[in-house]
Design brief:
The structure holds two protein chains of two kinds.
Chain A: H1 11-14, H2 22-51, H3 58-92, H4 102-121
Chain B: H1 20-50, H2 52-84, H3 113-144
Helix pairs in contact in B: 1-2
Classes of the chains: A mainly alpha, B mainly alpha.
């Protein structure tokens, strides 16, 4: 495989295996970016809840805010490590791993919805 | 799915760089715009309560977003160049003009430095947001109780 003398970062991913179909590499990169945008939305939601001071029971509003921001902190970890694991699997011809955070995130969003409903009802 | 195995016979068709590559570039643009817009809106929301800190973070975030937009344009050109000058040993692509595949042209897709920087920055933003939420809630509780 021809290429620059310098290895690509990270070596743990690009130093092994062979180059996959570039369309799959690009799709993996888009998935990474989707997780990043998800993280931004979660963080923004959590911050807005507190910053806007919506008329809700304060404890429940804080709980919803914290859950959103914590999810927003985990999402970039899923973005990076998910990207690395999938790229590695593609290069080594292995089965692709699933995203760890997908199902928990769905639960998180539902839980936040319930907290908001309760917080508004009990304001 | 195996990476790159079962190669198609060398095709005379140019690699389909109008779709996947462009979609990826657009995805980067959306991300850069989200970072920029989110930072500016966040600064607008937070400035009343946090003063210069909020404004400073907003400006930093907006600069990061602009940095992402600029770097992603460079990345797009790099990817496009690699995929349209690739030799026929790679699946799906032959060079239109071997003479253009000069020694200085990139032959590999870019690495993951930009993604790593973006992930790290967003992670830090999340931690700062966590601090803000806790501080704001504490202050609100103290003034109300």
């Amino acid at each position: 495989m021809s290429g620059e003398a310098r290895g690509r970062f990270p070596r743990r991913v690009f130093g092994r295996g062979s180059e996959p179909d570039p369309r799959f590499t690009l799709a993996n990169e888009r998935t990474f970016l989707a997780w990043i945008r998800t993280s931004l939305a979660l963080i923004a939601g959590g911050v807005a809840l507190e910053a806007l001071g919506l008329p809700m029971q304060p404890g429940l509003r804080l709980a919803a805010s914290l859950v959103l921001v914590l999810a927003g902190i985990l999402a970039p970890l899923q973005a990076w490590f998910g990207w690395a694991r999938v790229e590695q699997a593609m290069r080594l011809g292995r089965a692709l791993p699933g995203s760890v955070l997908t199902a928990p995130l769905a639960v998180v969003v539902s839980v936040v919805g319930v907290l908001l409903l309760l917080g508004y009802a009990l304001r | 799915m195996t990476g790159g195995a079962t190669p198609d016979p060398p095709s005379r068709e140019r690699f389909d760089d109008g779709l996947q590559v462009e979609r990826t570039a657009l995805s980067w643009q959306r991300t850069g715009l989200a970072i920029t817009a989110g930072s500016l809106v966040g600064a607008r929301l937070l400035a009343p309560g946090t003063g210069w800190w909020g404004i400073g973070l907003g400006v930093a975030g907006a600069l990061l977003g602009l940095f992402v937009l600029v770097r992603s344009g460079i990345r797009h050109r790099h990817v496009h160049r690699v995929l349209t000058t690739r030799l026929s040993t790679a699946p799906h692509a032959v060079p239109l003009d071997v003479a253009t595949a000069s020694a200085s042209a990139p032959t590999q897709l870019p690495g993951a430095v930009l993604p790593a920087v973006v992930a790290a920055a967003v992670l830090i933003a999340g931690l700062v947001a966590l601090g803000y939420v806790i501080a704001a809630a504490t202050a609100a509780a103290a003034s109300a109780g």
